[in-house]
From TrEMBL, chain A:
Keywords: ATP-binding, Nucleotide-binding, Transport. This is ABC transporter ATP-binding protein. It is found in: Cell inner membrane. Residues 3-256 form the ABC transporter domain. The keyword Methyltransferase does not apply. One of its GO terms (molecular function) is ATP hydrolysis activity.
TrEMBL record, chain B:
This is ABC transporter ATP-binding protein. The keyword ATP-binding applies. GO terms for biological process: peptide transport; transmembrane transport. It comes from Paracoccus onubensis. Residues 4-270 form the ABC transporter domain.
Amino acid sequence: MSLDILNVTKIFGPARGGILSRDEGFRALDDVNLHVPKGSSFGLVGESGSGKTTLTRCILRLENLTRGRVLYEGTDIHGLTPRDLRRLRARLQIVFQDPYASLNPRMTIHDIVAEPLLIHRDLFRLSARQRSERVLELLEQVGLRSEHLFRYPHEFSGGQRQRIGIARALASRPDFLILDEPTSALDVSVQADVLNLLHRLQQELGLTYFFISHDLGVIRYICDEVAVIYRGKLVEQGPVAEIFDRPRSDYTRMLLAAMPDPDPDKSPFRQSPTV
Amino acid sequence: MSLLEITNLNLAMRSYEGETQILHGIDLKIERGEIWGMVGETGSGKSLTGLSISRLIPAATGRYLAGSIRFEGTDVLNATEREMRKLRGRKIGMIFQDPTTNLNPAFRIGTQLVDVALHAAEHDPSVLGLSGNASRRERRRAARRVAIEMLGKVGISDPIERIDAYPHQFSGGMRQRMLIAMAMIGKPDLLIADEPTTALDVSVQAQILKLIHQLVLERDIGVLMITHNLGVVAQLCSHVAVMYRGRILETGPVRTVLKQPSHAYTRALLAAIPTVHTKRGELRGIGDIMAEAG
């Protein structure tokens, strides 16, 4: 279940111009190479506009590549037939950043979590009753209860909604989960609970995580390996402890220095520690 | 006399389900030169406290059960609307979280800054550096000069050219700086910043914090920084107030509160932040800790 990203380049545009048009388009990803080992947590760090989200869209084949290959267990995702692609997507799921925007407000929690089972019904072949049983099992797995089944998203807090998003992602029994800033919209206290839930689920289900975040503290906590992306290029990658303790690139050093430390004595603004 | 003094503030808000008390006996005193951090989770009442200071809680739904807010001696809760307008955007500067919704996309940056400068000058002509009887045209020209100067001050390069840009041509960080420029034009004595860096990248956040710190040094203003990021508080603030469910649990100098927190909730908040030494699976949510504390 390893994922390999080989020489991936994605150029948006160029806008169609005349024969002399100089517009070369926007290079969102530039020769990106990554190896995500099976069962690991791989972190991707970068600021807004660095290409994090474009890379996830390329992995899921929501975007076509300009160049390069994305291999999942050796199979090129971008070479699959539509039928095979759909089968693969059951095993490759995503949890989105904004728990307020990614759940349909007109659907009950039951229907939201059951939807992947309907989409992939040729894989699971569940009756309506079996589907409901599976939905309940999933909700319990993420710490929600049966009384929540027929409520609507607006009745839940941010942390609970993100749990629903996780339950939906797990419905089709994936082995690879893309987590696109899953806790950045949450309070630190709720973030701690969601991170612990993700850690527990990984141990129970043997999942591989591709974890996107701009919060280096979260990455350090949850990931084994990390890659730093800047303007579509990978700046560096390696084991988390190594990158954090001995960053080789100036950009990573800058990112680490800019991260506000909760220790008041490490403030750059406070020369004398007595204030 | 303190710059700002909030005493026993109790606020109730009405909704379809009836009236609920939101703030329970808030006490807070801010002096010039102090940067106060107000931390707490979503729904703890941080923002409503901030809005109360400039009396921006809608009168139709909000009701103050008790308490007072004094800003440089003015009784904010009982002042007339006319008096409040002299304070808002003038003596009390405000910066909100989302720069995209707080700028008008249809007007140029310059137009929006000039408006603020002209409005502030109605109450205090010295904002433009002009005497009271300057002509309309002189005032406009001076306001534009002030706007350019402020843009430069908040670190936007080529302010003379950028002033005619529209908000969408600015990046998120530049828009947030523009909001700071807007808040600073009236030369406020108190700056209320409600999550000013939450939507920004860490590198841009670091620049904004530096900017606020410089403003405090230069002008000796007081700042109330509302945030849920304890890292930001630890770096920038001199004092901190911890809020939980409409109450202030703990206040004090930032080092005391963050290094020797006296309240279990503050300890829980600190424990919820993953640090270098936190082992995977050992992070603790607030629920666990508060349950143990009873």
